[in-house]
Amino acid sequence: MGERIWTAALIVIGDEILSGRTQDKNVAQLATWLNVQGIRLAEVRIVPDVESAIVEAVNALRVRNDYLFTTGGIGPTHDDITVDAIAAALSVPVVVHPGARDVLEQHYATRGGLTEARLRMARVPEGASLVPNRMSGAPGIRWGNIFILAGVPHITAGMLDALTGTLEGGLPVLSRTIGSWVAESEIADLLRETERAHDGVSIGSYPFFREGRVGANFVVRATAQPLVDACIAALVAGLKATGRDVVDGGI
Amino acid sequence: MGERIWTAALIVIGDEILSGRTQDKNVAQLATWLNVQGIRLAEVRIVPDVESAIVEAVNALRVRNDYLFTTGGIGPTHDDITVDAIAAALSVPVVVHPGARDVLEQHYATRGGLTEARLRMARVPEGASLVPNRMSGAPGIRWGNIFILAGVPHITAGMLDALTGTLEGGLPVLSRTIGSWVAESEIADLLRETERAHDGVSIGSYPFFREGRVGANFVVRATAQPLVDACIAALVAGLKATGRDVVDGGI
């Protein structure tokens, strides 16, 4: 054990999430992608389109995590203030990135040209590099350990694809899930003791109510497959000893 | 104008959200419910099942918002540490709430009885009252302006139902949506100027790519219907003046 754990934080920027209008999908999407890179999503904040709120979150999270991601607010309209807010947090000016301007000029050549509004999407905090966007014109932005990505989930996904394998991380977190038609309160002791007996492993318990019955899925997580498998075996044995059936892969 | 704005924050507690395993639904659900109560969801944090992370978030958010909600981590298993963490944040002891114990005794009378593990769900920070749970046994908890709710969305929903109309709020935020098959970058100026011309109104622009075409929905928000309607009328007129069709209610 004792391997270095790499962490990331995410700031989701957007009134549309906080108003309940839009169901966020980027938390789950980024978390899943990070797991494969060997990086853990350690914390998330969802903030409104308000500069001071973004500045506070950026400065709180960028120092205590290896990476900071933001999604949302990098489009061409008046409510897209992410770049200005992050530049303010970093105390650097906003500049037009020549590479981003080229990308946008090409993209909009057959779509009515690069207007003033569209040129807004070439603005970056000074010192930034670009994250390719294969889906639509405007690129994402990298500044130090900060990755400024689009908010529309399929565009975010394209930007993450472009970053795959480029970030240093540790061992990916592996997991295995089993399910059982049991009230979690009936086997709380088994879960606690099994976790305690297996160093480096965490067991999550996720109850549900389905088809008129209670059940729960149990997710075992660790960075080495033998640890996961040993803990699952102990858990299955414990459940079977009390007469419960186990569904591999979860219910 | 000048009416008092009531705000709430939400802390989503759970490794299952940060691992990407579970798609959170409580942000959108709470946001929608709060709007009807005349309260705005001002910020959200998603934190792991780690006491220090919960303590930090609780103490940061409970003071600067009228209300603080938490979801998750109040079940019977070892990873359910919300009550202990919030009690630590408040510097009060954890006690068994007699009312909660009664509720659980009744609930489990025909379900195998109130075990030690199940009794964990009667534990509250000292000084708390209960939030009824119509869906399953364990109640939610109120402590001052903090509401400690379940994480399973349909149970959270039942607890919110029980709280409906009991919290002081301001005017509900009203909204109206129109959509158009237009690239938002083409009408960024129209959006900015229309918002500027209508005090107390915010316009959100939400682009999408569907059926091979780009479009956007525009959400106008204010606390008075005439404000919303006047701004929508101006926006529709502006879009039609440039030859765009408008879909009432959004696309």
Automatic annotation (TrEMBL), chains A, B:
**Know the name of this protein?**
Molybdopterin-binding protein
Any idea where the MoaB/Mog domain is?
9-171
Please give the organism.
Sphingomonas hengshuiensis
Domain of life (superkingdom): Bacteria
